[in-house]
Amino acid sequence: MSIVLLLLRLIHIVAGAFWAGAAVAYFFYFAPTAKGLGPAGPKFMQDLVGRHRYPLFMNVSSMLTILAGLALYWFSSGGVSAAWITSGPGLGFTLGSLAALAAFGVGFFGIRPRAARLGALGAAIAASGGPPTAEQGAELGRLDAAMHRFERWDVLLLVLSLALMATARYWNF
Questions:
Q1: Could you give the count of Cα atoms lying within 13 Å of 152 in the half-sphere of its Cβ?
Q2: What distance lies between CA 44 and its chain's CA centroid?
Q3: What does residue 137 show for φ and ψ, rounded to 5 degrees?
Q4: Cα 71 to the chain's mean position, in Å?
Q5: Quick one: how far is CA 85 from the chain centroid?
Q6: Is residue 79 within 8 Å of residue 16, measured between CB atoms?
Q7: Over the stretch 73-110, which tens digit does the pLDDT of each residue have?
Q8: How far apart are CA 64 and CA 100, in angstroms?
Q9: pLDDT above 90 as % of the chain
Q10: How confident is the model at residue 1, as a pLDDT?
């Protein structure tokens, strides 16, 4: 294995583990903890997003995973050879790649804009110095429900991608 392929594989696997791991941790631990904290929950989320730059971490890890994965796919498939793609490993890596790309789309087009709107709404509520208005409360509820649906799909697709790619080398048919 060449040093380039070794580095691409290392970047792909480590960044992918960070991306999937952070999504799973957020879905099962961070978001429920924020809800459980009641009025302190928004402060926790602001710290996670602002000070700890969770969205930046997710963007960088997902992009590194995808870019390194595309290069690996190109090299492994011999320039996207149909014979390789329809082989067992090719099919596993192709399906895993599609699941990861779908997860990226869910995050970028589904989660990101709603998270930005939640942040802006939270800042407006904090600036008012009081509790949210009825309209703000209703919008918070709608955004939270939509975010949870998108997060569920994101985690499902990332875990599926991880499972497919981890086993693809052993698909013999």
A1: 6
A2: 20
A3: -60, -45
A4: 20
A5: 25
A6: no
A7: 999 988 888 999 999 999 999 999 999 999 999 999 99
A8: 12
A9: 67
A10: 67
Distance CA 154, CA 168 (A): 21
What residue has token string 């009641």?
Answer: 38
pTM: 0.88
**Cα 169 versus chain centre, distance:** 24
Distance from the first to the final alpha carbon of the chain: 25
Task: Give whole-number Cα distances, 119 to 39, 67, 141, in Å.
Answer: 15, 29, 13
Q: Which positions ≥6 away from 19 have C-beta within 8 Å?
A: 58, 61, 62, 65, 158
Q: How far apart are CA 89 and CA 168, in angstroms?
A: 5
CA–CA distance, 77 with 166 (Å, rounded to integer): 17
Amino acid at site 169: R
* Tens-digit pLDDT profile for residues 9-55: 999 999 999 999 999 999 999 999 988 998 788 788 888 887 889 98
Degrees to nearest 5, angle at CA 39 with 56 and 116: 30
138 CB burial (10 A radius; 0-12, 13-18, 19+):
exposed
**Cβ atoms < 10 Å from Cβ of 26:** 20
Question: Residue 160: which of 92, 105, 108, 111 has the closest Cα?
Answer: 92
Name residue, tokens 């008012």.
128
Query: Rounded CA gap, 109 and 29, in Å?
Result: 23
